[in-house]
Amino acid sequence: MSMSHGNRTKERLVVVGGDAAGMSAASRARRLKGPDELEIIAFERGHFSSFSACGIPYWVGGDVADRDQLIARSPEEHRARGIDLRMRTEVTELDVDGRRVRSRDLESGAEEWTPYDKLVIATGARPVRPPLPGIDAPGVHGVQTLDDGQALLDTLSRTEGRRAVVIGAGYIGVEMAEAMINRGYEVTVVNRGTEPMATLDPDMGRLVHDAMEGLGITMVNDAEVTKILTGEGGRVRAVVTEDAEYPADVVVLGIGVRPETALAEAAGLPLGTHRGLLTDLAMRVRGHEDIWAGGDCVEVLDLVSGSERHIALGTHANKHGQVIGSNVAGGYATFPGVVGTAVSKVCDLEIARTGLREKDAHRAGLRFESVTIEATSRAGYYPDADPMTVKMLAELRTGRLLGVQIVGGEGAGKRVDIAAVALTAGMTVEQMTSLDLGYAPPFSPVWDPILVAARQAVSALRRTTP
Amino acid sequence: MSMSHGNRTKERLVVVGGDAAGMSAASRARRLKGPDELEIIAFERGHFSSFSACGIPYWVGGDVADRDQLIARSPEEHRARGIDLRMRTEVTELDVDGRRVRSRDLESGAEEWTPYDKLVIATGARPVRPPLPGIDAPGVHGVQTLDDGQALLDTLSRTEGRRAVVIGAGYIGVEMAEAMINRGYEVTVVNRGTEPMATLDPDMGRLVHDAMEGLGITMVNDAEVTKILTGEGGRVRAVVTEDAEYPADVVVLGIGVRPETALAEAAGLPLGTHRGLLTDLAMRVRGHEDIWAGGDCVEVLDLVSGSERHIALGTHANKHGQVIGSNVAGGYATFPGVVGTAVSKVCDLEIARTGLREKDAHRAGLRFESVTIEATSRAGYYPDADPMTVKMLAELRTGRLLGVQIVGGEGAGKRVDIAAVALTAGMTVEQMTSLDLGYAPPFSPVWDPILVAARQAVSALRRTTP
Questions:
Q1: Do A251 and A145 share a domain, yes or no?
Q2: Cβ contacts of residue A24 below 8 Å, gap of 6+?
Q3: ipTM of this predicted structure
Q4: What is the pLDDT of residues B85-127, one digit of tens each?
Q5: Distance from CA of A69 to the nearest CA of B (A)
Q6: A455 interaction partners in chain B (CB closer than 8 Å)
Q7: Residues B315, A354: C-beta atoms closer than 8 Å
Q8: What is the CATH number of the domain that holds B396?
Q9: Paired residues of B228 in beta bridges
Q10: Is A54 a catalytic residue?
């Protein structure tokens, strides 16, 4: 049922997508405007709203006991706050000129049109599923949604064999490798790139590679999967590359995601080179006064290179939602962009990056020096001072920090935040050498590893451009 | 033996004080200029060079097994690098007009004058030892030097009783309380202030208080020590305040330090309101072309309030030394100032601060809003997500960040670095709300606690100054 557009006395906001960006936007708008001023209808095709996809590897790995812990706010909770959230209802068309969306109830098959005054597109991303023979076989699992996670857990509980192959070695791939190790599996990671974690430069990826092998994970790099073999009952049996065959009782796809923008594209909305929606800084779809978009379906401005990127990450989606919710409700907020910070871990190894890799800097036309230093996360004499490696890039002539990559033990990863703030502020590595960072032996050597790297970068720049 | 000034063909640098600032300066200068160009003579009255005073509580507490681990570079190592380091030799007079220093060999009593072309003053700080009856009794210990630490350890090994009283509840006091707990002592901390950790606002200090009591430490606040009672053999027996008497088998003084500037004052060099030497940004003593000073004997510019402070901290001393060494050797470097970052821990409780407390902001004439938020160090659903409290101050109208205080579990403390960089960059809390900080469930909730505090600060400012 939808009221006819002309008869409505209050504004109606329609939200497409009931996860982080969409429901943050809806919730923020609701806090700013009550149900008397603003009607909010949200459509979600899945079974869950506002869940932490980033938490799925830890649920599968057993660190998080219960699926429901990953749900930040249930559909009932949203409804209790005055948001008409319609679950299992897929939006199948955006009629931008007519200011309405068409939706289908996935249970009943019923379709209807819903008019809007303001529209938020938060359709998220979809996992890359290469069209390989056998990719849809039982025992092959993505891990994007809670349903995916549950299906994988069901498979694990039914499967006797203990051989897992993870395809892909980015964040999801390495986190799922850890999860399967924690579940007691023999794990092989099959990776297309020269080293795992292509979000790092290969020299830093090599450190991750070595550490993963040290954990008993078999790492296969430079390997293109050509097909997935099935056996008894059509179930997965092996993963085949150009060079070899890897027996598998379960296969996890960790290949990454692409913006889910088919609806937006069909409606003629502007997409970027990564196929994500393009917005202005207020997260409004470019050229469209009353349409906003956020989360995994948009491209974001990279503040270091000045170009657009696609980054699927819950923390950005939440920020987008806040900004959209404020603007939709007549307030003012912006999302200025990202510097590309990410942090992850494989067992005790922490991996972090922010800013540009060498490849990114080259692509952006920047010339730079790069330094790599070894240090410890605490004072060397303090117990459990773990080694950490920091790579730092700085631009020639300006001396501006361009990026930092970190691989190391406990306490290494979140140090990337120091560099993230410095990048945001446009600091030079010279300025960074005198940063007043927290020092005490249990927390840091007297020169924090980030300061050591900055000092080396200053020296390197001085040698190159005296 | 010293060459007469007029006959020297190369420059001579004289360094007064053989610890972090002095020996960093000497080492940096030596790297930039070889022995043929620059002669370096350094005087140290103690038995050790370049040691980590910050590590002493962990040595006393048993986390660090061996004293020598706290020595970054021994006198022999310095000498092998071409620095004429004279141990147990106290400088007793600075003759600024005559460009020479008088020193006394503490073993032989022999005195001599040593001319200099360039002088570095790095005389450090001395512990506050109030002139209380009994303060010099056996069993009462400071913990500033390695000799102090050894003397305390000797006392502990000889003492049967297990009651320790720590006087003072700043960094040294709380770290020594932890050390004595780790040694199996019953610990009472007697504190002059209303709460421990006067470098925090009292509301945050209260959290430290509660946590310390939770560790079984007896906390006595608002208590002025009036005398120390001695018993058998003149040894310490109890600490007496205006209101009570606390039995003690050992007493640790953790009252803080003052700049050691008697020599500099006698020489007519400029001191600030905290009795520290005043320097320019190149760490040159104001008004003196060829005299530099750094480390615990100088005052530093607080970049947030714009006024001078005295902060005795190894990480600053090392930076000062690097800057001085570069400048002495004809290079160029500056130390722009501090934002007042510090981090510490008591057992599993992490304590950190940067920027201004409420009191500092009032004193600096700043009007501000203050918010305090509760969060967790990791995603709430992730194992070992420890609670953390963040207090944030932001200036009215400009919205500029003024300070952050953190008390919480593992992973809480070093987050202060995010705020330290933001303060250095002069960021507003609004700008901070979109910082691209590292997010993954084992490292942070989807909104990092610093972001949560920044958002609350923005809301608070909006309410006050719409």
A1: yes
A2: A50, A317, A318, A320, A321, A322, A324, A325
A3: 0.95
A4: 999 999 999 999 999 999 999 999 999 999 999 999 999 999 8
A5: 6
A6: 322
A7: no
A8: 3.30.390.30
A9: B239
A10: yes
